[in-house]
Design a protein that fits this description.
The complex is a heterodimer of chains A (222) and B (434).
Chain A: H1 3-6, E1 9-18, E2 21-31, E3 36-40, H2 47-54, E4 62-67, E5 70-71, H3 77-87, E6 88-91, H4 103-114, H5 119-128, H6 144-156, E7 162-166, H7 174-189, E8 193-197, H8 201-204, E9 209-214, E10 217-221
Parallel strand pairs in A: 3-8, 3-9, 6-7, 7-8
Antiparallel strand pairs in A: 1-2, 1-4, 4-5, 9-10
Helix pairs in contact in A: 4-5, 4-6, 5-6, 6-7
Chain B: H1 2-12, H2 14-49, E1 56-60, H3 65-70, H4 79-88, E2 90-91, E3 107-120, E4 123-130, E5 134-137, E6 143-146, E7 156-159, E8 169-173, H5 174-180, E9 187-192, E10 198-208, E11 217-220, H6 221-228, E12 233-234, E13 236-241, H7 248-255, H8 262-269, H9 274-284, E14 288-292, H10 294-336, H11 338-346, H12 351-389, H13 399-424, H14 427-431
Parallel strand pairs in B: 4-11, 8-10
Antiparallel strand pairs in B: 1-13, 1-14, 2-12, 3-4, 3-9, 3-13, 5-6, 7-10, 8-11, 9-10
Classes of the chains: A alpha/beta (222), B alpha+beta (434).
Amino acid sequence: MSESARNILEITDVSKIYGPLKALETINLTVPPGQWLAIMGPSGSGKTTLMNIIGCLDTASEGAVRLDGLNLAQLTRAELTGIRREAIGLIFQQFHLISYLTALENVMVAQFYHSMVDEGEALAALERVGLADRAKHLPRQLSGGEQQRVCIARALINHPKIILADEPTGNLDEANESLVMDILHNLHQAGSTIVVVTHAPEVAAHAERVIVLEHGRVVSDK
Amino acid sequence: MFWKMVAGALRRQKGKHVMIAFTVGLGVSLATAMLGVMFDIGDKVNQELKAYGANLNVIPRGASLLGDKYQLAGDDGGEAAEEVLAANYIREDELYKIKMIFWAYNIVDFSPYLTARVKVGNEEINLVGAWFNKHLSLPTGDEVDTGMASMKSWWKIEGQPVDEAFPDGVMVGRNLAGKLKLAPGSTFEAAAADSGLVKTLTVRSVFSSGGEEDDEIFAPLALAQELAGKPGLVQRVEVSALTTPENDLARKAAQNPDHLSRQEWDTWYCTAYISSIAYQIEEIMPGVRVKPVMRVAESEGTILHKTQLMIVLLTILTLLCSALAISNLVTANIMERSVEIGLMKALGATNLSVSLLVLTEMLIVAFMGGVCGYLAGLGLARFIGLAVFGTSVEVKTVVIPITVLMILAVTLLGSLPSLRSILHLRPTEVLHGR
């Protein structure tokens, strides 16, 4: 098996330029399947920009991004939408649950846009994050930690090739942070590839690899 | 799942959706009312124009209009005289046939006229006999009251109008009354210019028509026939009929109905054009010619066309205003939901699926508002009919599919800017605040 075939993600000389500002500058990065990678850096260092490019929510101005062997630069917007649907699970700092749908329905939304809804499977995903008993609750009836766990269940439901988490514990207290990190640990042990963007060293410490960005450049890769 | 999302969104933004429904309803109610009036306005305008008098003149086939008004002939007996009479006069006892044509119910009123020359003092003047409020029993069993009373609604009458029950009671024109010093209640003697027959007449009223009739006397038809020595005869008949405004087919038929194709002829004959009504009167009364008063008929067409054009333009403007208001409301709705829509796109929703979701919501809201608007429009049309025409407007069923199309058009047009913003919405901008 070749080196490129083994990697789920390959980033080669990627830059992202907004007018005079270079948000990312010549980033090179490879992530093998099953790796837990943390991307750290201060505000404005380009971590979220890099995550958006990996998550097919944005495109690189220069360079190549290969996700599961596909060159993202060659794909149309509709094809990128397809990749998001099929291969990526997104976890947000603000959870972004749909307020008028229950926890279960929020998980099913991801199924709906992926293929077809399966309530049993969605309930199993909630059970996996310890929220089966809260399935019929609306987001406003859930705590922050519970909302984030619903968000994780939604990210898992379509068996993505890579899970991208943007500051997953940024809005949580210590107890809920611990719960969420435990879930991510379990996912990692089950073989999921996880990329976590964080500015918190204690969150990054859970990862098996940490890269640090500063001014759009990788300054550390451990 | 799709319908759960639609129902959830409808519930969550109740206030905004009620506003959108209200806006659609307002536009649709105005449009329904205006379209209802537009489709019914032909008959209404027609009825209004009936107040301006007759639109058909029936004259004997052999007489010119001028001859009918000013010449009296065929009074010297004999066979030739009979022919002259037949050519220059219409038999009073045949007039009921006017109410027996195919379009009988469109004949609102008619009145025959016969002019006798009489001498009052040294003045030689016209005494015009007419039906004022004549009761007819038709062979069909129908009972009809007709006459000139309602055909000359603009005449100002001081006193009692002429009544067939008072055979010597007359109406005197204002100019003549001034000249002869006559007033309601006074009596005078009138002598037939030809036979010298003298009758004592009572003035029931003095009228003002604003025309040449102000120098004439109007009397029951029987009195004029006696003074003119023409019992049972009339010179002309004025007919007031409800007609369909003229169009190209009617104009073509008016030139010569024989030039119409079979299909055109059927359409023309079975439509209440003034020319087809005239044709049918001539069919049932072979000895007469019927001349449409084209001035009135053309006015009807022109007024109707202009009014309908104005209503169509107002309807379009109303719908455009509604679309604009809806556009603002839907755009505000989409902006408020930009994170939700961005999330859907981040989860893999296509532009089409998000647009369908939003459009479905808008169409449901619009149809609810549209149905309420349609019902309100029916009431509004009724109110407009009563306020403007004095009778309620009957909204035709054709307005329903037009209303549905209007709702669709207004909603789609109003949703276009927000759909465009959905297409351009980038999840990164709303999910991460970039």
